[in-house]
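Q: What does the assembly look like in three dimensions?
Context provided by user:
Components: three
Sequences:
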Amino acid sequence: MTLIRKPLSRRSILRSGAAGGLVLATPTIFTSRAWSAGYLNEPTGDTVTFGFNVPQTGAYADEGADELRAYQLAVKHLNGEGDGGMLSTFSSKALGGNGINGKKVAFVTGDTQTKSDAARASAKRMIEKDGAVMITGGSSSGVAIAVQSLCQEAGVIFMAGLTHSNDTTGKDKRANGFRHFFNTEMTGAALAPVLKNVMGADRRAYHLTADYTWGWSQEESIKKYTEQLGWETVAAVRTPLGAGDFSQYITPVLNSGADVLVLNHYGKDMVNSLTQAVQFGLRDKMVNGKQFEIVVPLYSELMAQGAGENVKGILGSSNWDWKLSDAGTQAFTKSFGQEYGFPPSQAAHTCYVQTLLYADACQRAGTFMPSEVGKALEGFEFDGLGNGPTLYRAADHQCFKDVLVVKGKENPSSQYDLLEVVEVTPRAQVEYPAELLGGELGSYNNGV
Amino acid sequence: MSATPTPTRDLLMFVVFAAAVLTMPMWLAPIGAGYPDLLQKFAIYGLFATGFNLLFGLTGYLSFGHAAFLGVGSYTAVWTFKLLGMNPIPAAIMAIAASGIFAVAIGFVSLRRSGIYFSILTLAFAQMSYNLAYSVLTPITNGETGLRVLRSDPRLFDAAGQGDGPLVSTLFGIEMSGYPGFYFCAVLLIIGFFIAQRIFRSPFGTMLRAVKSNQNRMNYTGLNPRPYTLAAFVISGMYAGLAGALLCITDPLAGAERMQWTASGEVVLMTILGGMGTLLGPILGAGLIKYFENIFSAFNEQTLHRIFGFLPDFLETPVVAITSLFVGEGWQLTLGVLFMLIVIFLPGGIMEGFSRIGRMFRRSSGAKGSHQTAPAE
Amino acid sequence: MDVFLLQLLNGLDKGGAYALIALGLTLIFGTLGVVNFAHGALFMLGAFCAVSFNKLITLQKIIIDPTKTTAWGTPLEVRTPYAEAMFGDFGQWLVNYSVPVSIVLAIPVMLIIGFVMERGLIKHFYNRPHADQILVTFGLAIVLQEVIKTLFGANPIPQSAPDAVRGAADIGAMLGFQAGAIVYPWWRMVYLLFSAAIIAGVFAFLQFTTFGMVVRAGMADRETVGLLGINIERRFTIVFAIAAVVAGLAGVMYTPILPPDYHIGMEFLVLSFVVVVVGGMGSLPGAVAAGFLLGILQSFASMNEVKDVLPGIDQIIIYLVAVVILLVRPRGLMGRRGVMEN
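A: Here is the predicted structure of the complete assembly.
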């Protein structure tokens, strides 16, 4: 692995001190935080530091590992190593593969443990100790929102990783925070018409919903859009997070008269509830003269792997898929696959894209100052990053792009080929007015 | 504590402790821990563990639900911010009061049982609090996202005061984040340590130790141990509440996961790791666990290559490959190994290690240690 | 009616799982007096015996096909399982029945793990304070978890039940109700029967063999048994190994219901402690009874009719019941005086 070898800086002395017991440094109290700078952690040397804050332990550790791979690949490409990946297909040509604003990109990593407290502690370390100008990552909306508000208070930019709740760019949006990933509102808008086409307009749905913010947000969006199309919601039952065995929630579905089960679960909850729902014979059932169906609104490749053959034929939505045929996707999949030997997940994709977008905005703004970088991202129209023409909306810092409706593949050709794209829902169909989700951006904080 | 405590020794210990805590930013910098957030965490979790030790170390009652008080303290502090204003002092007082009341209720019920039955009762109460805070109590706790101070909150006393700046706790104009926040926590840790030291040396402390060594004998002498244990439980709950409040004073966000059993388990581990029943042990244990969590998890292959860069290439690659199993995403492995090594070789925790070193130096003068420990192997 | 019956089935099924997990723990915890925080890890290791066995028999021969390439430009690998290539039909049968067959692997593996754990570590902690036992077993649990995570990753690994018992059975039709009203997965019924069999086996072993008699005597009064010249320590090693096997088998058979990952043990750890303590320290029947009681109550608390009245009750029911029982009965359902009370 090629590395960015920095000259012996204060930080690297601290690190080698930590390992070798070398006591040789000025206490940071005298040197950290250059107050003279125009913004927090203004890079003064020849490098600029990003903070990659992903879950490395706990249930989402594999997803976090994939995100970290994508970040490292992005840093390589930004510094002009490797084949350049999506830099060559990106519509903005500001970046030249020689770092950003003449500075090489360095990074620090941390473990969020998928807990708000740990994630904030880790992000604070990156800001206070390592001098990161931008924090990115996340595999859960609660954590993303917590870190986003921390970055707002501290005065650095937060580029959200995988977070699907409306709140991230709705009720809890912040000026310093930006999200490329889609949300439950878009899932509802994209998924509902496909559900109607496949299953008909006369359906009775039963929701099982993870009992926390993201679950409720997902349930509400799906209800809203399916009911508009004529579906009826029989019941929406809340299940505790991490319930493990869902049998006591699944049996009431059997005789409820419902003919569709919507699983508003993510991660391990989804793996377990889907596996068990299939075991209860729901998919072989006929209700009201119709085939019983299961829907999983938010899919991820890792979840599909965890649920195994139970995902076959089950519909859901996705932000991106490596099998898309546009040039950006192909370039990224090639570059990632050559580096690591398997295709990237949608989590890896969104993290890679976020890094590139941030870097590009800094280059165009000519500075790393959060307020200037933010303005460069606001209203930015771009293409070539795997999702077709995309807009970073100024009003809520949310990306608008096509949404994929996917289905568990019946005959996968390999262990990575688990989902197939059923439909690419055009951007126009998933757009909504920024006021719909409430919240207020506030103003940029540069940290000084 | 190998020597008999005397008032002079206690005073000396207290002064050294206070000086050590206040100079932490200096002497922790070389090992990479000299930044405000981690220093704050050292002080806060040190306080939490000190309080926990007042119950567990003295009476032997193992509460497996102490994180509930940490959570209650946090939520109370944030609600105080939301309703009254961003001054940390009312928040801390309200948090201590609320967690105290909560501790009276839980303690009164749980202390009717002893041993493992007590542990499971406290665990059950904490898990109920956690599960409810995460889901149905969302209007009060803001569930998964965590409770935060919003610009639209009433904040009776200072709503007009702050314009567009970030909403952080301020004490007379000093923002309680960064180093000022650390010193605020450090001062409270020192006060907490002082109180704990007084309790250890008081007749009340002796009574609590009596509960631990033989409750039956105490009953026979006509003393009812319940009021003493309840008092210890409530005091220890208040320490936890204050720690919870400090978490929010330095960073105004309260999340439900602070009440989960893993958080309760963490403070148990901190105390045992450092040495239960000793004054300094729990603080050291807390520091060690937080250090691993924050620093060891931050090493990645890039940092390792930089550290071992001095090795020749054919050595560097395997060394990095092996070390990377124990840092970054493998930091918990190191922690697990550390737990086992310490308990196998140092029964009695880190403090036992110190007193062994102390004994080694005194052996020549014929002094005898107070502990008689059998090695595990 | 059907809703009620289904929840009863759920409760029994959950109860079977809880009882089985608690049974192993209560052998170690209630009788040997060791606070074993690594019990969840034993359950997890059992589950990964099934995973390893499945991986082993589905080991694939990789042939590189240079004429085709992957999306990222490297030559395509074509994989065929060895077992199928070598044994034909038997290989297929083996893959199909991998979960139940892996019991054959799990029993010796868990026996060895239990034996090594007891001789190498736990033995030295019988007379140490509970605090030390907590720290050492918790440390061990973390280490075991991390090893599994390094080997198998953090994502759940799906295991399927044999085809013959994969779907759901129409119990309603069998009992003469309307067809399709009461269906229940075959595998869950297999699990219930399996746990009943294991529980009965352990009870019979302790009740009707000389060995069991000595162990029971040792639980009641270790000193006297020692004075009689019986080496109770050696028997305890065997008890520990049996407990490890019971935990491991519970894990193996649970894999088709819950795809296992490295963290699965921690999720059952707290629950199994609650079940054991509610059952009463030192009582095997107590642990089993508590397992079924908590399982059934949890199922009924999750009914929509109950949740409408008491929102969130399903999330806390286990702990609520634990509190009530421990307050009404000081030593749980059937606890013995003086075990772990101070």
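Follow-up: The longest helix of chain A spans residues 346-365.
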